[in-house]
Amino acid sequence: MTLLLIFVRILYQPGTESERGELYTFSNGWYQLEVCIGDRLLYQYKDNRFEKNRQMKGKIWADISLLEKIGQEVLSISYETKKNARLYVYAPMIGEFCFIFRQHLLGSFFSILMILGMTGLGLVSVIVFLYTRHRQIVEKRFLNVALFLILCSLWCIFDSGIYQMYGSQNAAGTLISFYAFMTMPVPMLLFVQNTVSESVRWIPQVWIFLLYANAVLQGFLYFLFRIPFIDTLFITHLLLFTGVVSMILLLWKEYRKTQEKEVNLCLKAFGVLGISGVIALVLYWVLSIYWYESIFQFGILLYIAVLFWGLLCKVSNNIQFCLEQEVYRRMSLEDRMTDMKNRKSFEMYIEEIQEGAILLENVLLLFVKIAERKKINDISGRQMGDETVIRTARSIQSAERSVLEQQADDMLCSNK
Q: CA distances (Å), 64 to each of 27, 96, 102, in order?
C-alpha cells in the first residue's frame, strides 16, 4: 500500500501533459548535486532533518520539470567531490513523466520483488500458524518468521530510493527504517531460542538484550545529543555480524550433540545469511556501493525460504503423526470382526462412570427452587428450611447414583 501511494504521488502533477513539459532526472550519486539554468538554481541537494551518508545518497535521483522553454540559456549540472577524486555519475534521463516513472520503477524492480516476496511469505506464515493451532499443534516459530519478514519489509520500503525521493514523510520514514533494521534480528533470535535445547537458550537471550540496548542507546544519542544514526551505524553492523557468527557456532554445537535434521537445516540457513551479510558489508564499507542492500535482501529471502521449508516439513510430519495416532486409538477400541466396542472401550467407560460417581459425592445444591420454601422458613424457622434443602440434595444424589448403576448394569449386559 505504501509503495502504491508513492507511485501515485510520482504520477500526480497539476496541469496537462503539454503544460508540464519535459522531465529531467539526474543521479545525485555521492555528490552534492546542483542544477541551474543560467543563473537560476533549479535544484540543490540538501539533507532533510535526517542526515544521509554516501550510500544512501547514491540511491537518489533528482526529478526536475522544465515548465518553460529555456531558449539559449545553458543547463548546467554540478557535482561536488573531493580534489582529484574519481567521479561516478549516470547520464541524465529526459522524457515525459510516464517514461521517467517507468525507468525509476525498473531501477527498483528487484527491491520491489524482494518486498513482495517477504510480505507474501509473512502472510503465509501467519496462515500456517493459525491452521496448525486449529489442529492443536502450536508452532510459535511461524510467528517469529512473520514478524521478521514484516520488519524486513519496513526496512526495505523506507530505505528504498523511491521513498527517499518521493516520500512525503521522508525523515520519519528513514527513522523507521533504521529502527526496523536494528530490531529485525530479534524474531530470528527467538526462532533459534525455540529450536535449541533449554540449557543454551540463554545465549540468544543475551543477544536480544544487546540489540534492544543498542536501539535505545542510538535513539538516546540522536534525540538528546543530535548524533546522527549514520555515525553509529557501525555498532549495529558489528552486532549483526557477531550475532550471526555466534548463532552459527551455537547451532553447529547443537547439531553435533543432537544430530537433528531440523537443527542442521537451521544451521545451513544461517550460513546463507552470514555469507550474504559479509558480502553486503564489504560492498557497503569497503567499496561504498549503494546497491549492497540487494545482496542482503536476496540472502534474507533465501534464509527464510530454507527455514520456512524446514518448518513446513516438521509440521506436516507432526500432523501426520497425530492423525495416525488418532486412527490407532479408535481402532484399539473396536472389534475388527464385528465393528462393535471391545472390552477396552468398556473398561474406559467404567472408569468414566467411577470418576463421575466420585464427583457426585460432594454434590452441592446451588440452584434449586423448592415450592413454599419461604413459607417453611417463616413458620418453622430457617433451620427447618435448610434441612429441607439438604434432604432434597441427598435425594438428587441418590437418584443420580441409581441411574449410573443402572447404566453400568446395562453396559455390562451388552458386553457379555
A: 11, 11, 16
Q: Residue 215 corresponds to which cell in the numbers above? A: 536501539
List the one residue out of 300, 284, 297, 299 whose CA is nearest residue 58: 284
Q: Assign domain 108-328 to its CATH architecture.
A: Up-down Bundle (1.20)
d(CA 225, CA 55): 24
Report whether 82 contacts 71 (CB < 8 A): no
Angle between helices 170-183 and 202-225 in degrees, nearest 10: 160
The answer to whether 243 and 277 are in contact (CB under 8 A) is no
Nearest Cα residue to 35 out of 14, 65, 69, 68: 65
User: Residue 95 forms beta bridges with which residues?
Assistant: 23
Domain segments of the chain as ranges: 2-105, 108-328, 352-414
Q: Which of 191, 213, 210 is nearest to 147 (CA)?
A: 191
4-49 per-position pLDDT tens digit? 333 333 333 333 343 344 566 666 555 677 888 777 887 777 766 6
The DSSP H or E segment spanning 392 is helix 382-414
